[in-house]
Design goal:
Keywords: ATP-binding, Nucleotide-binding, Transport. GO terms for molecular function: ATP binding; ATP hydrolysis activity. It is a single chain. By secondary structure, this protein is an alpha/beta fold. It has one domain: 3-Layer(aba) Sandwich (Rossmann fold), CATH 3.40.50. It is globular. Bound molecules: adenosine-5'-triphosphate. Adenosine-5'-triphosphate binds next to strand 1, strand 2 and helix 1.
């Protein structure tokens, strides 16, 4: 469905755009339909840039992003772009910034109606909206006709997901969608993503939080300094992390149910196996080694 092939992004930075910042380096990955793939990395690792390129908000400096075989940078014209966004939508970290405070929150649905379904009758449209709102487990009574400030972050986030459902999207780019939600709403939104996956939607789940990646995704991609450090089935990446960076990240996840002594004893009994990583030929390429089936490890950039 979605395929990234040797994608690079270099931003121009500094006074007069004279500097260069390599934000994404040689990233190749696939997302199949109905699959949840997590892009995991610390701040500045390039995850949002990747998500934005998939959404067509930025163009890659080089490389190809294709959706069902079409290079998305070749999509030209209003009708073709509309057709793309009917199938690919994004939901971002801060739900409040996606709503205009002077309009009622469900205006976001009306915008979809006027753009994509202008001929739909009021009754049919209402039915569609009620169905989408129900799917994201919101009570229409509580959310429709309300202003953004009358709704919680979790409710707004779910309304944005409902908006994507009105379009029957095939791929949702979910960029840090739960970072700003409180703990009780987080789990609802995570479970909602699991429901969407059950319905066949693919999700590119962008997160800085390893444990969230582990919780929601079929496959995980760990990014470091814009390049893939490790990628594979989530269970393998988490049970058998191969890149020193992944191991370091995993060792930083607090394990609240275990004491330091237990963790140390286990590490001594089962020391992680070290593998030799050859050096990448230059700073632009970031080749991957397939260490086991479908489990890739990046050549260390130091
Ligand atoms: N529009 C831009 N212009 C210039 N540099 C940018 C731009 N957007 C991002 N960057 C830089 O590119 C690098 C990657 O940023 P990106 O936002 O993709 O990382 P991230 O992993 O999503 O981090 P965060 O979680 O903090 O958003 C960072 O060094 C960032 O400062």
């Amino acid at each position: 469905m979605l395929e990234l092939s040797h994608v690079h992004k270099v931003y121009r930075v500094g006074a007069f755009g004279g500097g260069r910042l390599r934000a994404v380096r040689d990233v190749s990955l696939k997302v199949e339909s109905g699959e949840v793939v997590s892009l995991i990395g610390e701040s500045g690792s390039g995850k949002s840039t990747l998500g934005k390129m998939v959404l067509g908000l930025f163009k890659p400096t080089s490389g190809v992003i294709s959706f069902d075989g079409t290079d998305i940078t070749t999509i030209r014209g209003h009708a073709a772009r509309k057709a793309y966004y009917r199938r690919v939508q994004g939901v971002f970290q801060d739900p409040f910034s996606s709503f205009n405070p002077i309009f009622k929150a469900d205006r976001v649905f009306e915008m979809i109606r006027s753009s994509y379904f202008p001929g739909t009758s009021d009754a049919d449209w209402r039915e569609r909206v009620l169905k989408a709102v129900g799917t994201v487990r919101l009570d229409p009574e509580n959310v429709l006709g309300k202003y953004p400030h009358q709704l919680s972050g979790g409710q707004l986030q779910r309304l944005l997901i409902a908006r994507a459902l009105l379009l029957d999207v095939d791929l949702l780019v979910a960029d840090e969608v739960i970072s700003m939600l409180d703990a009780s709403t987080r789990i609802d939104v995570l479970n909602l993503l699991a429901d969407l996956k059950e319905r066949g939607m693919a999700i590119l789940f962008v997160t800085h939080d390893l444990s969230l990646g582990n919780y929601v995704s079929d496959r995980s991609v760990i990014l470091r300094k814009g390049a893939i450090a490790e990628m594979g089935p989530t269970a393998r990446v988490f049970e058998n992390p191969l890149h020193p960076y992944s191991r370091h990240l995993l060792s930083c996840v607090p394990q609240l149910h275990r004491t330091w002594a237990e963790v140390d004893a286990e590490m001594k009994a089962n020391p992680p196996e070290d593998i030799d990583l050859p050096v990448a030929p230059d700073e632009e390429s970031a080749p991957l080694l397939e260490a086991e089936k479908g489990h890739f490890v990046g050549i260390d950039q130091g």
